[in-house]
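Hey team,

Filing this mostly as a record. A colleague (T.K.) asked me to run one chain through the structure pipeline before their review meeting, and I want the input and output archived in the tracker in case anyone asks later how it was produced. No errors, nothing strange. Just documentation.

Input sequence:
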Amino acid sequence: SDEVAIITARRLAREEGIFGGFSSGANIAAALQLIEQQPGITVAVVICDSGLKYLSTDLWA
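Output structure:
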């Protein structure tokens, strides 16, 4: 959901210093869900956008 993507993008910035956008948050959230469902798997995630273009949106409000 949009809310999960936002929460995860903010967490990514706060905990890892990676300033991504909505899709980055969604990608990481999906990866975390996969890891939770299948412990021990390896998941690679591509962070394909910066959070800069979202500074005036709800993502960083």
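Quick notes for T.K.: The helical segments are 2-16, 22-37. The two ends are 18 Å apart (CA to CA).
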